[in-house]
Design brief:
mainly alpha; single chain; 147 residues
């Protein structure tokens, strides 16, 4: 998938405003929108992103329960890793260039969290509802705790 910087801005805005069509809310779109939000409104995202995603899910007819919808551990792990990724970008990299690099990185694979968490632990109700530490190896970019 290739996104322009305008596409990425539209994904992030569509997520926040709940206007993004559900079929466009893919893994790549999750990463692209999160990268854009980190670059444009990073302060407080640990607190704000969960509610943005939960309300978006409901707006497109989804649910947030013990089996589906919002997942705290996955969201916070990606947020911390994307922050570290953004901090390491070369100066002047556009959103399109950044997202292309991000999607080509290990995070571009939906199975990336399974490098750190066993499937059983990651997909537990506990991990869906709250932050659960990895059980396979330490996360290279630890979650930034909510203050």
């Amino acid at each position: 998938m290739s996104y322009s910087s305008e596409d990425i801005a539209a994904l992030a805005e569509g997520l926040v405003s709940h206007t993004l069509p559900k079929e466009q809310w893919t893994h790549a779109a999750h990463l692209a929108a999160t990268l854009r939000l980190v670059r444009t409104r990073d302060a407080g995202l640990e607190r704000d992103l969960p509610e943005i995603i939960r309300t978006y899910n409901v707006s497109v007819g989804g649910v947030n329960d013990d089996q589906g919808g919002y997942h705290e551990t996955i969201t916070q792990a990606y947020l911390a890793a994307i922050r570290a990724f953004v901090a390491a970008l070369p100066p002047g990299a556009s959103d399109a260039q950044a997202v292309t690099r991000l999607l080509a990185s290990p995070m571009g694979d939906k199975a990336w969290p399974l490098t750190y968490w066993s499937r059983e632990r990651l997909f537990s109700v506990e991990a869906r509802r709250g932050w659960v530490e990895p059980d396979l190896k330490a996360l290279e970019h630890p979650k930034i705790p909510l203050s």
